Amino acid sequence: DAGVIQSPRHEVTEMGQEVTLRCKPISGHNSLFWYRQTMMRGLELLIYFNNNVPIDDSGMPEDRFSAKMPNASFSTLKIQPSEPRDSAVYFCASSRGQGEGEQFFGPGTRLTVL
Amino acid sequence: GDSVTQMEGPVTLSEEAFLTINCTYTATGYPSLFWYVQYPGEGLQLLLKATKADDKGSNKGFEATYRKETTSFHLEKGSVQVSDSAVYFCALSGASGGYNKLIFGAGTRLAVHP
To answer: For residues A48 and A56, is the Cβ–Cβ distance under 8 A?
Structure first.
């Protein structure tokens, strides 16, 4: 299996632009998670889906952030408009079922907003 | 709410030294406990896990024992190598019987010198 795939790996954009991050979970996994990692705040859970349905989006910082999972093999995290404080590494992770807890992380997208 | 507390880093050791990274947790119910490792420029990877009290998780020479009486899951390794330099995250899951949402500690950076 290829593992969790994220694209792009690096993104540099200017303040005010729309940014879309993409994730392909491991086939057969039915839970998907988006995290943000910064030096100041550490690793934060933004949102997670189970069977393509958003279960908990309480970690989404504000309305500029939105996430979708149109099918079991694809998810997007969108920031519109982007701001310099959104600069971070964004990770997608997937897991199988409920209760076991083991999550498999992608390599991350390093976002820089100028 | 549920939480994980790790010792602050960085931890700096010489090669072949003994490693302990402390982790304690607060949770309702009976969580599973995990250690994840993040190497530079990569996503998190599961290092080891334990699903019930007194279980010992082990992998790559690392060990951690689930201690319910002290609500701890300390990570240990008898002889560290330079290649162990990374950030280590303690996490818990499933504490509330809900979906497999991981709650992470802040991470502890380990630097091993030759």
So the answer is: yes
